[in-house]
Design a protein that fits this description.
alpha+beta, 3 helices, Fungal-type protein kinase domain-containing protein, four-stranded antiparallel beta sheet, Pkinase_fungal
Length: 87
Protein backbone atom coordinates (compact mmCIF):
# COMPACT_ATOMS: atom_id res chain seq x y z
CA UNK A 1 0.00 0.00 0.00
CA UNK A 2 2.87 2.38 0.74
CA UNK A 3 4.23 1.83 -2.76
CA UNK A 4 0.84 2.70 -4.26
CA UNK A 5 0.76 5.96 -2.28
CA UNK A 6 4.25 6.85 -3.48
CA UNK A 7 3.26 5.96 -7.05
CA UNK A 8 0.18 8.18 -6.83
CA UNK A 9 2.23 11.13 -5.59
CA UNK A 10 4.79 10.62 -8.36
CA UNK A 11 1.99 10.47 -10.94
CA UNK A 12 0.06 13.52 -9.71
CA UNK A 13 3.04 15.79 -9.07
CA UNK A 14 6.00 16.58 -11.32
CA UNK A 15 8.66 14.73 -9.36
CA UNK A 16 11.86 12.86 -10.15
CA UNK A 17 11.95 11.26 -6.70
CA UNK A 18 10.23 11.37 -3.33
CA UNK A 19 11.28 10.99 0.30
CA UNK A 20 9.03 9.42 2.95
CA UNK A 21 9.34 8.32 6.55
CA UNK A 22 7.57 5.08 7.43
CA UNK A 23 6.59 4.81 11.10
CA UNK A 24 5.42 1.48 12.53
CA UNK A 25 4.98 1.57 16.28
CA UNK A 26 8.14 3.03 17.72
CA UNK A 27 10.26 2.11 14.70
CA UNK A 28 10.86 4.19 11.60
CA UNK A 29 12.56 3.88 8.21
CA UNK A 30 13.54 6.49 5.64
CA UNK A 31 12.52 5.70 2.06
CA UNK A 32 13.66 7.37 -1.17
CA UNK A 33 11.37 6.54 -4.09
CA UNK A 34 11.95 7.07 -7.80
CA UNK A 35 10.41 5.64 -10.95
CA UNK A 36 12.53 2.48 -10.75
CA UNK A 37 11.91 1.56 -7.11
CA UNK A 38 12.87 2.49 -3.58
CA UNK A 39 15.87 2.61 -1.28
CA UNK A 40 14.92 1.78 2.30
CA UNK A 41 17.00 2.45 5.40
CA UNK A 42 17.39 0.05 8.26
CA UNK A 43 14.70 0.42 10.86
CA UNK A 44 15.51 2.41 13.98
CA UNK A 45 13.75 3.18 17.24
CA UNK A 46 12.90 6.85 16.86
CA UNK A 47 12.05 7.13 20.58
CA UNK A 48 15.68 6.30 21.36
CA UNK A 49 17.17 8.08 18.32
CA UNK A 50 14.97 11.14 17.63
CA UNK A 51 18.12 12.89 16.43
CA UNK A 52 17.95 10.84 13.21
CA UNK A 53 14.53 12.26 12.34
CA UNK A 54 15.58 15.77 13.33
CA UNK A 55 18.76 15.47 11.23
CA UNK A 56 16.76 14.24 8.23
CA UNK A 57 14.39 17.21 8.35
CA UNK A 58 17.24 19.64 8.96
CA UNK A 59 19.14 18.36 5.92
CA UNK A 60 15.98 18.10 3.81
CA UNK A 61 15.14 21.76 4.51
CA UNK A 62 18.53 22.77 3.10
CA UNK A 63 18.07 20.97 -0.23
CA UNK A 64 17.24 22.74 -3.48
CA UNK A 65 13.84 22.03 -5.08
CA UNK A 66 15.41 19.60 -7.56
CA UNK A 67 17.29 17.80 -4.77
CA UNK A 68 13.95 17.47 -2.93
CA UNK A 69 12.56 15.70 -5.99
CA UNK A 70 10.75 18.49 -7.83
CA UNK A 71 11.12 18.16 -11.60
CA UNK A 72 12.43 21.62 -12.46
CA UNK A 73 12.11 20.92 -16.21
CA UNK A 74 8.33 21.35 -15.94
CA UNK A 75 6.76 24.81 -15.96
CA UNK A 76 3.19 26.14 -16.26
CA UNK A 77 1.91 27.03 -19.72
CA UNK A 78 1.21 30.77 -20.00
CA UNK A 79 -2.49 31.65 -20.39
CA UNK A 80 -1.78 33.49 -23.64
CA UNK A 81 0.12 30.60 -25.31
CA UNK A 82 -1.46 30.19 -28.77
CA UNK A 83 -0.65 26.47 -29.00
CA UNK A 84 -2.27 25.80 -25.62
CA UNK A 85 -5.34 27.84 -26.56
CA UNK A 86 -5.69 25.91 -29.84
CA UNK A 87 -5.47 22.57 -28.04
Amino acid sequence: QIASYAGAIMMLQYRSHLFTILICGRFARFIRWDRTGAIVSRRFDYTKRPDLVFDFYKRFSQLSPSQRGNDTNVSPIPDDDDDAIAA
